Amino acid sequence: MGRWWINLRKLKDKVIRLSGADGDDSKIQTLKVHIPAGIDTGKSIRLRQKGAPGNRGQEPGDLLLNVTVRDKPGFERKGMDIYTTINIPYTTAVFGGEVSVQTFYGNVLCKIPEGTQSGTKIRLRGKGIVSMKDANVHGDLYVTVQIEVPRHISGEAKWKLKEYERACSGKSSRAAS
Questions:
Q1: Which of 130, 87, 131 lies closest to 105, judged by CA?
Q2: Pairs from 124-128 (Cβ < 8 Å, separation ≥ 24)
Q3: Rounded to an integer, what distance in angstroms lies between the CA atom of residue 99 and that of residue 111?
Q4: What pTM was computed for the model?
Q5: Which residues have CB under 8 Å from 104's CB, separation 6+?
Q6: pLDDT tens for the 177 residues of the chain, in order
Q7: Strand, helix or coil at 145?
């Protein structure tokens, strides 16, 4: 039985071509297959009466397609939930703000609270995979925040960070000079 790769972003009817069970290309069939939104790897799609011909004039059997859903780089699926990681500037982590986060449904603004630490997980409700049973139910998107530490900074920025360090430790900038 063949494998059919499905792109989650483009779930819709797919046209597939099947050759005969014995590999005979003269018996190629073209079928339109409905791929239900939310389907996951390991599930099967049943095509009624599209399988091998029945014995002695009986109806053909069913054809089962085993589904394998491709991974999308930067995302991990667990059931109906999706996990991803975003990088934010140090200043956004300190002061808070909003960042654009890519979802399967387009970009959304994600609020970053003041004082966010690296490794913090933020849940975006309803931005995960749609349920196969109820199109109104969606999983969540979990965003793990990573703080970008600048590799190269100007002399002025370095001086201001040192001043910040002294302020946090209780020393005044005059006493340190």
A1: 130
A2: 127/82, 127/103, 128/80, 128/81, 128/82
A3: 7
A4: 0.75
A5: 8, 9, 72, 82, 127, 129
A6: 344 444 444 456 888 887 766 666 667 778 888 888 889 989 998 988 887 788 888 888 888 888 888 888 999 999 999 999 999 999 999 999 999 999 988 999 999 999 999 999 999 999 999 998 898 999 999 999 999 988 899 999 999 989 988 988 875 545 444
A7: strand
